[in-house]
Specification:
6 helices, elongated, single chain
C-alpha cells in the first residue's frame, strides 16, 4: 500500500516539468475539494437513517479530508494532466488568435499591430515584478500561493464554528 502511494506521488511530481503544472495543480485542488464536499454530502445522506451514526456530524470533516487525500492519490495524476491539456489548448488557441490578427493587420497596414505593443507593455507592468525575482524566490512564491489556496478552502469548512466562537467571545459585536 505504501509503495502504491509513493509511486502515485512520484508520478504527480514527475509532471512538474510541464509548462502549466502549477496552474493545473491549483485547479485540480479546487476540483478535489469540490468533489470531496459532494462525497461528504452523499456520506451524510447515506448515514442519516443509520442508528449508530447519529453523531456523525463531528466526523464529516475527517471524511472530507480523507476524500481529498484519496482522490489526490488515486486520480490526481490524471486530473492534473487533463487540466494541463486544457491550459495548453487555451494557450495554443490564444496564440493562433494573436498570430491571425497580427498577420491580417500587417497585410492591411504594412506595420505591426499596436495591440501587440500594448499587450507586451501592460503584461510587463502586471507581471514584470514576478519575472525579476530569482528562480528560487519564484518557486517559493508559487508554493506559498498553493499552500494558502489549500488552507483557505480547508478553513472554509470551519467558518460556522469560527463565527460561533467570535459571537461567544465578543457578544457585544452584534449591537454595533
Amino acid at each position: 500500500m505504501y509503495q502504491f502511494f509513493k509511486y502515485q506521488l512520484q508520478e504527480i511530481i514527475a509532471l512538474k516539468s510541464e509548462k502549466h503544472f502549477y496552474f493545473a495543480l491549483l485547479l485540480s485542488l479546487k476540483f478535489f475539494m469540490m468533489s470531496a464536499t459532494i462525497a461528504t454530502y452523499l456520506y451524510i445522506q447515506a448515514m442519516v437513517d443509520v442508528s449508530w451514526a447519529r453523531d456523525m456530524y463531528e466526523s464529516t470533516t475527517y471524511v472530507w479530508i480523507v476524500s481529498i487525500v484519496l482522490l489526490f492519490i488515486l486520480v490526481g495524476k490524471q486530473v492534473i494532466q487533463i487540466h494541463i491539456k486544457i491550459f495548453d489548448w487555451i494557450d495554443q488557441q490564444g496564440q493562433k488568435l494573436i498570430n491571425w490578427y497580427s498577420l491580417h493587420y500587417y497585410k492591411k497596414h504594412k506595420k505591426d499591430a499596436p495591440i501587440l505593443d500594448n499587450l507586451s507593455k501592460y503584461s510587463m507592468k502586471l507581471f514584470g515584478w514576478y519575472y525579476k525575482l530569482s528562480p528560487k524566490r519564484r518557486k517559493l512564491l508559487l508554493f506559498t500561493i498553493i499552500f494558502c489556496y489549500g488552507t483557505y478552502f480547508i478553513g472554509m469548512q470551519f467558518v460556522d464554528d469560527l463565527a460561533l466562537a467570535i459571537d461567544a467571545a465578543f457578544p457585544g459585536l452584534d449591537d454595533v
